[in-house]
Amino acid sequence: MGLSPPIWLKQGLLNYWAPPLLWSLAVLAMSGDWGSSAQTGYVLQWLLSWFVSLEPAQLNLINFYVRKTGHLLAYGLMYFLWFRAWREHADYGPRGAFFRAVGFCLLFASLDEGRQGFYSNRGASIHDVVLDMSGAGLAALITFALWRPRDPARPP
Predict the structure, then answer these.
(1) Is the pLDDT of residue 1 over 50?
(2) Does a structural domain hold residue 4?
(3) Are 123 and 36 in contact (CB under 8 A)?
(4) CA-to-CA separations, 113 to 45, 100, 123, 125, in angstroms, rounded
(5) What residues contact 147, with CB distance under 8 A and at least 6 apart?
(6) 81 lies in a domain?
(7) CA 148 to CA 138: how far, in whole Å?
(8) What is the mean pLDDT of residues 98-122?
(9) pLDDT digits (tens, 9 = 90+) for 36-45
(10) 77 vs 116: CA distance, rounded Å
């Protein structure tokens, strides 16, 4: 009847599922003390000091925008990697893969921001969850505009 084998028995398991899992862990690591504003500000100051001399207010503004752009990019890539795994390896259609990837990003962003509330140098923010989901949504739009499914005749 053409039933496909379970995900864990299909060829290419690590190729499809390791990238989203590893990226999610990296985002989780950066949402702790390593990704605090003080840490990113220090690294940014060091990098920019090679090229320009900035006032603290300028550096803080650049740090703010770099951090917010990081939210968009991190969750955009997270969406794409989860979409790819669900679509190509788990054999869900575009709609099923979309909802699973967006659902995971929303769940992950919500739990991650909630976890940040327990750190003294971090803070939980619903605005960051909205920003994270904006990155995931933008990635979904780009994915649907550009995605071409794998040719079934070509081996994975």
Answers:
(1) no
(2) no
(3) no
(4) 25, 20, 8, 6
(5) 87, 94
(6) yes
(7) 17
(8) 90
(9) 788 888 888 9
(10) 21
